[in-house]
Amino acid sequence: MASEFTGLSPLDYSIWSILEEKACSKPHPNLESLKKALKKAWKEINLETPIKAVDDFPKRLEACIAVNGGYFE
User: Is 37 in a helix, a strand, or coil?
Assistant: First the structure.
């Protein structure tokens, strides 16, 4: 279930989608199972991923300004 939201925060547009893909690929029977899967997925993210997301942040801000705060990818 991919999110339709594309936010400005690197956590919103980059990291959460990775966590969702890895941790939510199967249903969880309870909250503890989901938490465990999210923690495991977080540990699997390599350092370059959040660094790249943060480095791309100024471009995302420019894109947001270009569409007057409207939708962009």
Answer: helix
* pTM summary value: 0.64
**pLDDT at residue 8, rounded to an integer:** 64
CA angle centred on 22, ends 33 and 53, rounded to 5°: 125
Going by C-alpha positions, the residue among 13, 2, 4 that lies closest to residue 59 is 13
Look up residue 9 and give its amino acid: S
Compute the distance between CA of residue 73 and CA of residue 36 in angstroms, rounded to an integer: 30
Cα–Cα distance for residue pair 17/32, rounded to 1 Å: 20
For residue 45, what are the CA distances in angstroms to 27, 62, 63, 66, 68?
21, 27, 26, 31, 33
Task: Report pLDDT for 5.
Answer: 44
Residue 50 CB neighbour total at 10 angstroms: 15
